[in-house]
Amino acid sequence: MRTLEDIHEEYDFLDGDERYRLLIELGRELEAMPAALKTDATLVRGCSAQVWVYPTADGKTLHFLADSNAAITKGIVALVIAAVQDKPASEVAKMDVAGALAPFDLKNQLSSNRTQGVPNMISLVKEHAGRIAAA
C-alpha cells in the first residue's frame, strides 16, 4: 500500500475527474477482504455506501482489511487506511487522522454523501487502535 504522503503528492497534481480515478485506483489496490469478514460487526455505520473495516494486529502493530460496495467510497476508505496502516496501535490511538487527511480537502472535492461516513471510519480505526494499545 502506498503511503499517504505519496498519495497526496499525486492527488495534489491532479484535478477533478483525475482525482476520482485516483481514488478508484486506490480502492482497487486494497488488500482483498474475504467475504466472510463482511458482516454487521465490521460494517461502518453512517456511510451512504456499505463499508467494512476489519482490524488485525501483529503484537502492537495495526493492519486493516477494508472494502466497500462503491468504487469511490472504497478509495476513501483506502485513504483512511493508508494513514494508519502498519503503524503502532499506540501511535494511531493518539493520531489526528482527520488532520492527516485534511490536505486532500475531501469535503470540497466530493459530495457530502460520499464524505459523510469518513468521521465514522476514523472513529472505528481509532477505537480499534485504543483497544489494542491498551491490551
TrEMBL record:
Pfam families in UniProt: SufE (PF02657)
Location of the Fe-S metabolism associated domain: 14-127
PANTHER family xref list: SUFE-LIKE PROTEIN 2, CHLOROPLASTIC, SULFUR ACCEPTOR PROTEIN CSDE
Protein family: Belongs to the SufE family.
Protein name as annotated: SufE family protein
Organism: Aurantiacibacter sediminis
